[in-house]
């Protein structure tokens, strides 16, 4: 443990590592290679865990109560009434924490005890990973995990190459290549490596996976080190027999561990409300204590003083004020159950159950990729039922991220339109049989030897970072960094330009059946700023050529001036391709003379070897050579929509969820992907395009959009124009009042460019942008950066009190996913970074509607019903003590037996409410999907809020009044069959307790909307357990064993044998329950909710709601170049080696249920009120006759 926890020097500014010199390296106190992700050990578990648990206010509060109960002068309850539930809560949490930490320990031990071959004093010795030190040289073999962050020294592969898989780091499963520095690659055997004493000076530990900057000093020379020389911990060695590496970072300093920081803790709105309510309840408890303490003071002064000889004060009490002070604390102890200790544990159990339901849902299981939905957190389930804004990535989230070469433009001629797919086999035996293209004129152009066509496909076969693996002769497998790259290289392969293999300095192709080897002089790598990549190659004849491909926005402006006419034609083709939903790239080349190459190569080498500002110098060198290029043409790749995306977006829109797509693609793409996904429709009054380049122009465009929205909205409402003319005439008008924009009823859409968005996100304009965008049904932001995605989410969270959800599949979506209230990761083609950062994950976007409309809605409904009942039952239980105080001289005497007080919350009433919280539902899952409007109560927070809380409290107080005063009134004059009076304390206590248990059991039976076997067992079993335990506790057997503990001997038996007691219980139950039933009957009759109507239609099997087919729409979208930096340099240095037909569109008729629309803050009701006795049925466009109250009083269902 001491080795694991050994700390390095604080504020490490640079790292110095000398190979094979542990004594030198230990001076710097670098961390060892032992990792420890666990929190506890055997000694620290109990104190640390208890300390953490008592950080919770509720636990600290009950510990305080326990201490009070140990003071005899103020405690009228035994200590175990508090310590039993407190110990139970602490124990459950401790067991959970211990289990989690046990698995962390197990994982840590498994990793720390892995074996590694370390070179020590010239000999290879097996060492545990935890014993590896900085400066050690390690031998790795094929398929082994990399033990620490290593500088690759040598490899068994030619040119010092080694192949790795980085899935554990970034989720990418394609192989990557690393290469050793050439001078160390010559140290091929362990004897030479044992004498290696080079020193590495590099950056301190950090979490940047794609960056490393260092210098190797050896034999009076220095060598630049980059990330392509590093093997990071967590990688796996592939297709490489052996390699050696020098440990640079170990254990917690490795980039893998540096990236495993704690995730931001997210809390739900119900959590925040619950904490507020608990504080209110505590305040209410103090007020009740003060009232009863004042009553005690008055009673002791006016009445109690007359009984001093019979009821003297305790020796420590010398006046009525001190008696009142003690009475206050006594009542705080007695009434503490209004703040239920089991509340938080019950909530966590319910959430855990909901998470398992998500994990087990077969409807969200993707058989194609064998991936189930996963709830990666248990704290946000009910928030899934309250989402108002969804922020979605496009590529890989809405689309499949599986690319196919669809069309191309070569020398002004477009190709790709044809009736039948081409058969490439007779022409090219190396063709990929799965490749499809539909224009034989392009193949003919290749066959006749058209120079432009050949150069076009030659560029595609050379300008890339794809790795090729030839399993057998002619059987090529391409390992592409991005699907775009693979599609382009495969297209070149089928048209006769086959990429075969590569080394750090060569690329071998087969061109029209003839093998050709090009010398690879340089790769000008891709990054998100350049948005292009280039290669410089020398052909066998000695000619040097630069080939470039990239986004048209950056490549066309670097063409030779003589290319203007061809550029205009190609630009038209690019717009056509984007309108067809295709990802586009422009291709160009430049012939270089030997002198030009030599001059540029010298500047490039200087930039490459620079130790400071290396990236900027390289970018300047790239920019210099990528000028005056000749245009070849453009490519168009199709990325098809995922299954069910349009249907899912339509359904979510009907649930009043606003969907924003945040994409890096260009504007044409953004508009057309919107139509393709049915986010944008021809029925929309207007789609606003914001594309200004200055702050002023963006402000003007937003203002005009708002004016137009209000104008169209007023026109639809009958031409009301008041309140607009004044601010329209101002020269620099402020944004319209929020209430004007909140009342917009039209379905508008907004498309905004990345550069316009940058201005819109500025502090002085963000309010205008939010008011404009939030009035739209759909918003599409194009050309946005990952940082802008997160900023947009934060903006909505800041200005709108709404729950946000972000969904994406790539590393560029991680910041957005972490910023939103709920993050959803798609396990797709871009690795698992998004999944690792998410709260929920699945494999298809279409599963989102089930996650929200079924699991989210049910979780919200269940949690709200649970909380309402929980607070109700506890107030009904506790307030009886308050009323009793006025009849017992405010002496803090309890009404119930102390064992009943202890067991009420943890035995008698805990399981039924848990069953309701886990299993309850108002309508089946299919109905939740068919009627998206059922989702709106969660968005409006209608089912549990401060108003509902006070209603529950009022019902609980009313129940306590009935449970106290009805038995008190009846039993005060009642007699037993023997003529003896029944008005004794123990009979009253048993009667009241029994009535309480029966009333709350009947109440939860009424509240339960979906009965399962478990509900029946828990409800009626808890009621049965009450009678069994009570009879046992009041038995003579226990009294004889513990006479000082069980004072109610025989009370239960004698009380429950009296008919008047049962009549009293029945009367109290009736008085408590009948008003609830009457209220619910009237509510369903006068103000039915949509769920009531849906349940009724299900019960009577009416199938009147016909489905209208969806209007077909043009399939349009557009995309941009997607790639990643780092692979070019790696190569050149040798480092690379259900609802069919949109049935739910019928909901577009927009008949609204009035009970929701009257509460909708942003939209007033603009629909006709159905006639009395009928209810508008969402999705049908018709009214059904309202059911008789007797048939749908609460619509309970039985499984």
Automatic annotation (TrEMBL):
Q: What keywords would UniProt list here?
A: ATP-binding, Coiled coil, Lipid transport, Magnesium, Membrane, Metal-binding, Nucleotide-binding, Translocase, Transmembrane, Transmembrane helix, Transport
Protein name per the record: Phospholipid-transporting ATPase
Binding site residues for Mg(2+): 393, 395, 809, 813
Q: Where is the P-type ATPase N-terminal domain?
A: 17-83
Spell out the InterPro entries in the cross-references: ATPase_P-typ_cyto_dom_N, ATPase_P-typ_P_site, ATPase_P-typ_TM_dom_sf, ATPase_P-typ_transduc_dom_A_sf, HAD-like_sf, HAD_sf, P-type_ATPase_IV, P-type_ATPase_N
| Biological processes annotated in GO | Golgi organization; phospholipid translocation
Q: What is its EC number?
A: 7.6.2.1
């Amino acid at each position: 443990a001491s080795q694991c926890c050994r700390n390095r020097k604080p504020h490490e500014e640079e790292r110095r590592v000398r190979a094979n010199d542990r004594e030198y390296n230990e001076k710097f106190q670098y961390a060892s290679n032992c990792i420890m992700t666990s929190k506890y050990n055997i000694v620290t578990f109990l104190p640390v865990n208890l300390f953490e648990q008592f950080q919770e206010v509720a636990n600290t509060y009950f510990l305080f109560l326990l201490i009070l109960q140990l003071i005899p002068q103020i405690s009228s309850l035994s200590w175990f009434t508090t310590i039993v539930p407190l110990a139970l809560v602490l124990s459950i949490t401790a067991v959970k924490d211990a289990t989690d930490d046990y698995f962390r320990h197990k994982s840590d031990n498994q990793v720390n005890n892995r074996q590694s071959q370390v070179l020590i004093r010239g000999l290879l010795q097996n060492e545990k990973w935890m014993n590896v030190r900085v400066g050690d040289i390690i031998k790795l073999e094929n398929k082994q995990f990399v033990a620490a962050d290593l500088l690759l020294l040598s490899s068994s592969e030619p040119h010092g190459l080694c192949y790795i898989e980085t899935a554990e780091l970034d989720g990418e499963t394609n192989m990557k290549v690393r290469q050793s520095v050439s001078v160390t690659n010559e140290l091929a055997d362990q004897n030479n490596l044992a004498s290696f004493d080079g020193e590495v000076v590099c950056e301190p530990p950090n979490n940047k996976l794609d960056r490393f900057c260092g210098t190797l000093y050896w034999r009076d020379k220095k060598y630049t080190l980059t990330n392509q020389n590093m093997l990071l911990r967590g990688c796996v060695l592939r297709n490489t027999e052996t390699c050696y590496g020098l440990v640079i970072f170990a254990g917690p300093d490795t980039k893998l561990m540096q990236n495993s920081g704690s995730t931001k803790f997210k809390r739900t709105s119900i959590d925040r409300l619950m904490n507020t309510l608990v504080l209110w309840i505590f305040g209410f408890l103090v007020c009740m204590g003060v009232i009863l303490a004042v009553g005690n003071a008055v009673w002791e002064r006016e009445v109690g003083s007359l009984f001093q000889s019979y009821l003297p004060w305790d020796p420590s009490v010398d006046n009525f004020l001190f008696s009142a002070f003690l009475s206050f604390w006594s009542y705080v102890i007695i009434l503490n159950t209004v703040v239920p200790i089991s509340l938080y544990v019950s909530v966590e159990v319910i959430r855990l159950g909901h998470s398992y339901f998500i994990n087990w849902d077969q409807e969200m299981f993707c058989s194609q990729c064998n991936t189930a939905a996963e709830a990666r957190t248990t704290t946000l389930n009910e928030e899934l039922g309250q989402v108002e804004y969804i922020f979605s990535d496009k590529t890989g989230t809405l689309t499949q991220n599986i690319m196919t070469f669809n069309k191309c433009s070569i020398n002004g001629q477009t190709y790709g339109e044809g009736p039948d797919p081409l058969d490439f086999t007779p022409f090219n035996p190396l063709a990929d049989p799965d490749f499809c293209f539909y224009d034989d004129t392009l193949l003919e152009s290749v066959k006749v030897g058209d120079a432009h066509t050949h150069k076009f496909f030659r560029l595609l076969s050379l300008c890339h970072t794809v790795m090729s693996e030839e399993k057998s002769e002619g059987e090529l497998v391409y390992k592409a960094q991005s699907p775009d790259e693979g599609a382009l290289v495969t297209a070149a392969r089928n048209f006769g330009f086959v990429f075969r293999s590569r080394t750090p300095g060569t690329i071998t192709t087969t061109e029209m059946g003839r093998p050709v080897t090009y010398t690879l002089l340089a790769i000008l790598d891709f990054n998100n700023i350049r948005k292009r990549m280039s290669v410089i190659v020398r052909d066998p004849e000695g000619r040097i050529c630069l080939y470039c491909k990239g986004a048209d926005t950056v490549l066309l402006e670097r063409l030779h001036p003589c290319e203007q006419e061809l550029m205009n034609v190609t630009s038209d083709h690019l717009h056509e391709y984007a309108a067809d939903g295709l990802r586009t790239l422009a291709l160009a080349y430049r012939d270089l003379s030997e002198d030009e190459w030599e001059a540029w190569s010298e500047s490039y080498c200087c930039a490459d070897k620079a130790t400071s500002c290396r990236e900027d110098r390289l970018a300047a060198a790239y920019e210099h050579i990528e000028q005056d290029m000749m245009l070849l043409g453009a490519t168009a790749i199709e990325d098809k929509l995922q299954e069910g995306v349009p249907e899912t977006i339509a359904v979510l829109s009907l649930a009043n969820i606003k969907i924003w797509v945040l994409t890096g693609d260009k504007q044409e793409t953004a508009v057309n992907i919107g139509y393709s996904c049915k986010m944008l429709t021809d029925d929309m009054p207007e789609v606003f395009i914001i594309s200004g380049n200055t702050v002023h122009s963006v402000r003007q465009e937003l203002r005009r959009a708002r004016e137009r929205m209000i104008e169209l909205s007023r026109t639809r409402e009958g031409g009301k124009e008041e309140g607009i003319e004044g601010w329209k005439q101002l020269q620099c008008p402020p944004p319209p009042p929020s209430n004007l924009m909140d009342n917009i009823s039209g379905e508008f859409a907004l498309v905004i460019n990345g550069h316009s968005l940058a201005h819109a996100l500025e502090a002085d304009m963000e309010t205008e942008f939010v008011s404009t965008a939030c009035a739209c049904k759909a918003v599409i932001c194009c050309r946005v950066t990952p940082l802008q995605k997160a900023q947009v989410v934060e903006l909505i969270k800041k200005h709108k009190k709404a729950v946000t959800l972000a969904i994406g599949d790539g590393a560029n979506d991680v910041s957005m996913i972490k910023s939103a209230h709920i993050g959803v990761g798609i396990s797709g083609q871009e690795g698992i970074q998004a999944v690792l950062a998410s709260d929920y994950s699945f494999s298809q976007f279409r599963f989102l509607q089930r996650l929200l409309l079924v699991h989210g809605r049910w979780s919200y409904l269940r949690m709200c019903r649970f909380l309402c009942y929980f607070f109700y039952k506890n107030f009904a239980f506790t307030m009886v003590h308050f009323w009793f105080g006025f009849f017992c001289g405010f002496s803090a005497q309890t009404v119930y037996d102390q064992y009943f007080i202890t067991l009420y919350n943890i035995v008698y009433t805990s399981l039924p409410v848990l069953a309701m919280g886990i299993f309850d539902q108002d309508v089946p899952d299919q109905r939740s999907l068919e009627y998206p409007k059922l989702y709106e109560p969660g968005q409006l927070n209608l089912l549990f809020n401060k108003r509902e809380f006070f209603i529950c409290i009022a019902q609980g107080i009313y129940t306590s009044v009935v449970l106290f005063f009805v038995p008190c009134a009846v039993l005060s004059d009642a007699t037993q069959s023997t003529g003896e009076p029944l008005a004794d304390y123990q009979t009253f206590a048993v009667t009241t307790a029994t009535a309480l248990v029966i009333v709350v059991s009947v109440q939860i039976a009424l509240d339960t909307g979906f009965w399962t076997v478990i509900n029946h067992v828990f409800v009626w079993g808890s009621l049965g357990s009450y009678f069994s335990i009570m009879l046992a506790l009041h038995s003579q057997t226990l009294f004889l064993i513990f006479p000082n503990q069980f004072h109610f001997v025989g009370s239960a038996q004698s009380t429950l044998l009296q008919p008047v007691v049962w009549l009293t219980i029945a009367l109290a139950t009736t008085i408590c329950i009948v008003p609830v039933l009457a209220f619910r009957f009237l509510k369903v009759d006068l103000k039915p909710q949509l769920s009531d109507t849906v349940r009724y239609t299900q019960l009577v099997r009416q199938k009147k709601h016909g489905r209208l087919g969806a209007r077909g729409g043009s399939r349009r979208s557009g995309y941009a170049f997607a790639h990643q930096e780092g692979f070019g340099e790696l190569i050149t240095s040798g480092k690379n080696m259900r609802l069919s037909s949109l049935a739910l569109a019928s909901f577009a008729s927009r008949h609204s249920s009035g009970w929701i629309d009257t509460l909708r803050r942003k939209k007033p009701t603009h629909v006709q009120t159905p006639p009395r006795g009928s209810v508008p049925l969402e999705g049908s466009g018709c009214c059904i006759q309202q059911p008789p109250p007797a048939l749908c009083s609460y619509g309970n269902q039985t499984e």
